[in-house]
Amino acid sequence: xxxxxVEHETDTLKADWQRTASLMxxxxxxxxxxxxxxxxxxxDFYPFAESRNVEVGIDALRAFLPPSEPDLTGKDxxxxxxx
Length: 83
Description:
Largest sheet: none
Strand content: under 5%
Distance between the termini: 71 Å
Low-confidence stretches: none
Number of helices: 2
Order of helices and strands: HH
Shape: elongated
Number of strands: 0
Radius of gyration: 24 Å
Structural class: mainly alpha
């Protein structure tokens, strides 16, 4: 009996999250720029979905780095690292 109750609660939780994910996708699609991004799907917001492994190149990490400023002193950075 306990297993049936746990299974029912799990199914209810997943159904609630499916409904919530659909609403989140609807809201995100209302506010997205259609020229810059693709439409969202409910599976993009569903926490019980199977994880997707996406491979990206090293260039994707540049988005997280601060912009580099040009060296105005005329010195090479290797000199500063050696000291």
